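Protein folding task:
====================
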Amino acid sequence: MLSGYLLGLPLHHGNETLPIPLYHYEQICPPKDRVLVNRTSVEEFRKLDPSKIWDLGEMTGKDVLAAWLERLEQPDLVNERCLEVRMPSALVFDIWLLGTSRIQSLWDTVANAPVLTGWAWSPLVYRAYEKNRDIIVPRLSGILKRAVVATGLSNTPSLTGVRDDNVPLPLLTLHLRRGDYEGHCEHLAEWSSSYTGQNSFPEFADKDGFVVPRVVEGSKPEDAKPGDPPLLSSQEEKKKYYMKHCYPDISQVVTRVREVVHDYEHAVRTGDGKKRGQDHLEERSARDVEETLSSRKSDRKSLGNETLRGIFIMTNGDREYLKEVKKALSDDAERSKQEGSGKKDDWDFEWTWENIATSRDMELGWEEKTVGQAVDMYVAQRSEVFVGNGFSSLTGNIVMLRMFAKLDPVQIRFW
């Protein structure tokens, strides 16, 4: 599924400590030489100093890392060459840490660590993508040529250009988890869960912040005071609130896509933030750009549609459901060509989806099926705009890769 640094391939500067495969570890570290260390030993060490917080479950990610490093640097461990954290001991960074904002304090460390600076997908993932790219992104060659010119790569689209994770795809990728996730989303409402740590960075709060609502029987949403959590009248209303963000129905998907496209169009027109799409427009003079903007503002033509042309839906949904989603999204885009009726949900400009594809449309061989979700992630990583599920760790990993690429929050969205 992966390649690069995690598989032991060296980085450019060549002075990093490389990971090694399990079989090599077992050869150079026979059982008699291994020293086991676990969460309990770290917490017990911290208890020796009453002034320290000993419970790792109460610490930020940065403090958890510091606590482990402090323990590993003690005289009884510092010179050991075969240290091992073995299950079923709790992981160094467990799901309870990853599921909260406590993990965010580690972001600067992670973003500069070899795991991301040396990130690469496996040849199998690239092969599966290349095999299906005409399904995912029709007419890719024209888009790719413009992208490689803008980024200074070879003018001839090549395998290297296609595999460059920084070359954007003109796609809006949607993460639509279905199936058993419906029951999971209901449980999230019962548990009053928040978005995972990777999906709740402060920069997302303006447009996509998720606040756990309060339930007060008989209350109305307008009863909530400014700055307070949303106020709902029943547990059933709370469930609906969660389902909209976790398991949206087709009409909610359509509405959200329209909202996200409008935000993107506004960002491209005004030049706000670091829109990767705007960087890949054909080079033109400032006067040409201004004339284009002026004409399109008056005739309802879109500027953002140049770099956001298709939709890719990463999903485990069944084909009949996805056929309905595709049709609803296409029909809604067709509405954009009609003059607005003054309703809030009308399109402010014309928009066309040249293609809508899903995970189910890809042709994967028996070997490639094992990395199907990784192919989805690769497409989402490179897409111009991504809409994910804030409760999903899969979305969280995509968000991490997109944040590493320094994409603007208008390009990283949630249901």
Observations:
- The two ends are 27 Å apart (CA to CA).
